[in-house]
Amino acid sequence: MKKRLVPFAILATAGLALTGCSGGGSDSSDGDTLTVWIMQGTNPDSEAFFDEVGDAFKEKTGATLDVEYVQWADAHDRFVTSIAGGTTPDVAETGTTWTAEFADAGALMPIGEKVDEAGLSDDLVDGLVESGTYDGELYGMPWYAGVRSLIYRSDVFDELGLEAPTTWDEIVEVGNAIKEAKPDMIPFAVPGDAEFGVYPWVWGAGGEISELNGDTWESGLASPESREGIAFYTGLATEHGFSSAGATTWNETDVLDNFTQGNVAMALQGSWTPATVVQDNPDLEGKFAAAPIPGQDGGIAPSVLGGSHLSIFNTTKNEDLAFQFVEMMTTGEFAEKWGEQTGYFPGQTSLLEKSMGSDDPLVKPFATQMVDGGGSVPVTPTFGAVQAKKTVNAMIQAILSGQKTVDQATQDAADEMDSIMNEEG
Amino acid sequence: MAVTTPHKAAGGRRPPAAPPRRRTPLIVRTRPWLLLAPALIVLAGLLLWPLVRVFLFSLQDYGLREIVSGEPNWIGFGNYVEIFTDSQLWTVVLPNTVGFAIVAVLGTVIFGTLVALLLASLGRVWRLIVGSAIMVAWAMPAVTGTYVWIWIFDADHGLVNSMLQGIGLMDQPFNWFTNPVTFYAIVVINIIHHGFPFVAVTVLAGLLGVSQEMLEAAEMDGAGPVRRFFQIIFPSLRQVFAVVFILSTIWDFKVFAQIYLMPGGSGSNREVLNLGVWSYVESFGQNRYGFGSAIAVLLTLLLLIVTAIYVRYLLKEDEL
Fold first, then answer.
1. Which of B20, B52, B103, B133 is most solvent-facing, going by the fewest CB within 10 Å?
2. Would residue B8 count as lying in a domain?
């Protein structure tokens, strides 16, 4: 009798071992712990910052703050799998282009009412409110914003007696001067795998990425204006030879690495990068400066206002506690401190105006760019899919590598964009 | 199946005279299966169920919203229709995947076999030294190895471009990653470099088992080294080569990291997409898990067909 039972016992054990994995994940929080996901790769010192936030939070509410750091590169997959498994944190930092996507999936909690109650709704930066709103409801609390501008090597410019360019023609003049005097330097980096470097030229020439016409999105990438801007941008590499062969496959990080190594004279980079440059190569301190991206005939070419929201997931058990944390992070002391440490701009208008007053040559031009030349990519969950498909990157890379002409590449990209953005979500 | 039970009932040949017992007890007849059950259940849970799930996803329009709600969204074979009517599949993805696999498998097996022949002819000390050296290539993680090749071929500061410019063969730096042919040439080098040690070690193990008498006899009869290889060594190592070919094919068909990590390989250079990267970009980037699953199912079917052909040609039926 006993012997006969052995196989069944083995079976049962195997069965238990198999199901064992799905039984775990019990939640240890009894409402007194708030789990938060913060993206990493932005602030070099964020752990110390959040230790301080945790102490202050405990003092104020008595609850423990459990901060988990997630790399930007893995974050989207982590969010999706945790949404699927119902293991999302209480609060998380969500990139501005993701908030609408997760809201559309039904994973986020609307916070508009709470923001109104706290009397904050009139003091938030417009661009971030716009990207945090989906279907007329606010899902993402503006936390911080960043913007890309032109950074250039002021030591090289001074040596050659050059001024920061203010029109597109001046970019070419300055570039030629550098190319002649410094043959080892890349006068203007044109990376083939960085979409945010493309939009300023599209907008600067009067084009659009995509516009909602009735119910359908119509891409403007193949319009004569957009083509002019894209032709100018890629022409810096293909006609004028200001870029390098390697840059055809660079992404933004590669551009930053090469700028930090001193190989590049001009590039488009974000307001959060100067701190990284100085940290990685202290020799460059004081040798580079920023300027707003020049418009075609003067003025400022708009550049994408990026940044992050703090979003509350609808799996949270204690939404009031969650909102207390959100409020603490996005307003007042900690919001200001975060901005100072990272080079990002606060999402609260009153704080933003304060940093506008700065005279720092690596802060002021970015602030100007943000106020006078901030743009937004189309606000729709499907634009995230366009970015993931690398539609714009593929367009630029095909032009730079000579696979396609400007006309053909822009037409293909516009068609692809239209087909993705008008698909039933 | 190689598993045999300790009882003669499973011997395959019928005993000459039927034993007096008319029925073997149930427990005896089912015992082999019961003993196999834990392993089979684990395999079914870890391998079969995910496969079934992927197939079920591939019949749905399955996105983030479906993940959150848990509701199925059946669309029949719509995803498959979309794949087969996509011109990108026929002009870029499939030629890249199949062409790359053929070149990489042949390259890996040929190079690995040559190294094995070299190892077999070496003395003990040198075999140890060369053997350890090739193990280093094997032990290198795929990601690290890929970055090393990226640096070597980097357009502005890479070793290859500086050398070619240094000896005057090249005027302007060339970006090896933008042209699909040179892009895949680098991937092939990377894969062969990473894959040949396995082939070399496996083939060497077989080589040491080839009868020396037969080789000596052939030499006496005037057979040269090439003839000896194809007439004696290859036939006696056919099963080893079958395993090596099948595994290399499977690995090279589903190559992902070595392409995704290369400049332009993650989707910005459309000319270099293969099935693995295409599936990833569609499913995780676009949140179209159904469409990505359908691509994955096709890849699995393709591999099953290729494996079946190999097994048929390389292993005769009586050897199975």
1. B20
2. no
- Residues on A contacting B at a C-beta cutoff of 8 Å: 4, 7, 10-11, 13-15, 17-18, 76-77, 80, 83-84, 101-102, 104-107, 192-193, 244-250, 263, 385, 388-390, 393-394, 397-398, 400-401, 403, 420, 425
A contacts of B267 (beta carbons < 8 Å): 388-390, 393-394
Are B247 and B156 in contact by the 8 Å Cβ rule? The answer is no
- Structural domain boundaries, residue B161: 78-319
Minimal-distance CA residue of chain B relative to A19: B45
Sequence letter at residue B224? G
The CATH number of the domain holding residue B162 is 1.10.3720.10
**CB contact, 8 Å: B284 with chain A?**
yes
In a domain, B31, yes or no: no
Nearest-Cα residue of chain A relative to residue B282: A389
Cβ B188 vs Cβ B105: under 8 Å: no
The answer as to whether B96 is a domain residue is yes
Residues B98, A151: Cα–Cα separation, whole Å: 45
Is residue B28 one of the residues assigned to a domain?
Answer: no
Length, in residues, of chain B: 320
What's phi and psi for B124, nearest 5 deg?
-65, -45
**How many domains, chain B?**
1
Per-residue pLDDT 10s for chain A (425 aa) are 344 444 444 444 444 444 433 333 334 344 489 999 998 865 556 888 899 999 999 998 889 999 999 887 778 888 988 888 888 999 999 988 889 888 988 899 999 999 999 888 888 888 888 889 988 899 999 999 888 999 999 999 999 999 999 999 999 999 999 999 999 999 999 999 999 999 999 999 999 999 998 889 999 999 999 999 999 999 999 999 999 999 999 988 889 999 999 999 999 998 888 888 888 899 999 999 999 999 999 899 999 888 899 999 998 988 899 999 999 999 888 988 888 888 788 888 888 888 777 778 888 899 888 888 888 888 888 887 888 889 999 999 999 999 999 999 999 999 999 999 997 54
Residue B98 to residues A49, A243, B95, B102: CA-CA distances in angstroms? 51, 35, 5, 6
d(CA A406, CA B262): 25
Q: The tokens 């894969």 sit on which residue?
A: B191
ipTM, 2 decimals?
0.77
User: Cα(B28)–Cα(A7) distance, rounded to whole angstroms?
Assistant: 12
Domains and CATH numbers, chain A: 33-146+305-374 (3.40.190.10), 148-303+375-421 (3.40.190.10)
